[in-house]
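User: Show me a protein chain along with its predicted structure.
Assistant: Here is one chain, sequence first, then structure tokens.
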Amino acid sequence: MRRSYPTLLFLVFSLGIFTGFTQEPILSKQEAMTLALENNFGIKVARNQVKIAENNQSILNSGFLPSLTANAGATYNRDDITVEFPGQLDENGQPRPDFELNKAEAQRYNTGVTLDYTLFDGLGRLYNYKSLQEQYELTELQARETIENTMLQLFSVYFEVARLTENVNVFKQALEISRDRITRAEYSFEYGQNTKLDILNAQVDVTNDSINLLNAKQQLANAKRDLNVVLNQNLNETFAVDTVVNFIPRLALDEFIASAKENNVALLQTEKNLKINEYDIKVSRSGYLPTVGLSGSYGWNLNQNPPSAFFPGTNNTTFNLNLGARLTWNLFDGGSTAVRVKNAKIAFENQDLLKKQIELEVDRDILNALQIYENRLAIYAIQEQNVITNENNFARSREQFQLGRITSIEFRQAQINLLNAQTNKNLSKYDAKLAELQLLQLTGQLLNIEL
């Protein structure tokens, strides 16, 4: 007797949904981290911000260097002059003739350089320079925070791909079992050992398992595209991921937690902000002190004048050298300096209060993250044992089903229980690992460990 399958199954086979025809390259966790660090847009922007801060904290932006300016100029005059001498007689007693000077050209050239240097400004630029260096280090910490958040985003998607990959394998196994049921049901029907109903039930289960597999594969494809976005690579890039998860020993975690205050990026940022506010107070106080400056200039001038009725033409060249010093002391500026100092002190006090608040919040977050991690790790251990239990139950049920001692419905229930146990174990495994990564971020060790 010829056995028949639902049309859906032939369509699924034609799409190659059950078996993989190509071997996808493995994208390891370390390779994913490297790609994200090199290509992720958010990380690139953060690194550019660090470059800007590095430029700002250089000596070229400190005000310690002098200013040197150069200037040059030239003028040209051309005149036609007529000088009359009304009533004047020459040596012969004749009226003195008019004096005419045509195309009288005068030229003037000058050039010079000026050097200006602030010798002392109340130490304002010194503290501003130190503040810029602290801001550079603060920007580095902000970039590190961006990288840590990106790594968490990366692994949340990476582990979702891993979870769905394992789920696809689970659903494939379930589908193979259901397909085997159809074969057995048809053989049994041929020999009169069961009814057509068993075949129909098996076909319904194959259909459901096929739909579950299709949905899981679609979710897996979407998750891979999400990962490609984080890695900033072609959305159609295909790969497989590493589904092996290793957990950090508890002793190492305790050491990380003990040193969290020295490594937590949020706390380090508050310390830098506190230092910057401290320098702001000193910069404001510099307004009480005088400013001393030095200046110097060197110039060259050339004047070429045409002859006139009374003077012969001249050609004068001069060289000028000027040196000077200045002292400026704003004895009273209407109180604006005093207001700036007071406001800077208040800002420092607010930053100190914010630091204490963040310290308390970080302590809370670490305790919560540790408890969540321990809870999820315990759940994962329970789910592992639950899979073992359901595998034993399914093996016994399969044996009983083949002997005809239980119905297909009871066998299907044992199969569903095993499938749920396997998918729940997959979920709990990656939930526990993500909880561990969140704990590592809070302790400042996320970028220092080997995953």
